[in-house]
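Exercise 4. Each item below gives a protein and its sequence. For each, produce the structure-token representation.

Item: Protein-export protein SecB (Sphingomonas carotinifaciens).
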Amino acid sequence: MDDLGTPQGFDMTAGDAADTAPAAGMISQYVKDLSFENPNAPAIYQNQAAPGIDVQFNIGAQQVGEEVHELVLKIEVRAEAEGKTAFIVDLSYAGLFGFRNVPADQIQPFMLGEAPRLLFPFARRVLADAVRDGGFPPLLLEPIDFAQLYMQQAEANAGTAQPNTPETGHA
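Answer:
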């Protein structure tokens, strides 16, 4: 990254007319929203049973500037032990991505397949730290193949009248 936080090799300013090579890059990443709830403390710490974990993901993308898109990776985790909630974590981790000379039909596959792959390790760390700071062992999520998930969703939507839109990430 340069002094302004722009990825090296990615210039958000207009180049000369001969500069027509496609370019995509991450401009920044950030926690957009983070919530940790521990509704049954301190009694939950006396429970010796390992909690059952339910993890839900949602990806949303929207254009926020002429050549800039935001991706929000939302992760919701609910842990229960013996019928009681151990903890609930809601994380919205976002990134800004810049595009130059990229065909419009290539932006959505990047934003819903590649961009979440780039953000996920950082979101995973924030989530693990929040759970650990809440008094539980860190929750380490398994890697996710976002490109494969995007391809599966695109194939499933190929026969529907409402294709994915870059704004929402779903039909």
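Check: The helical segments are 104-133, 146-157.
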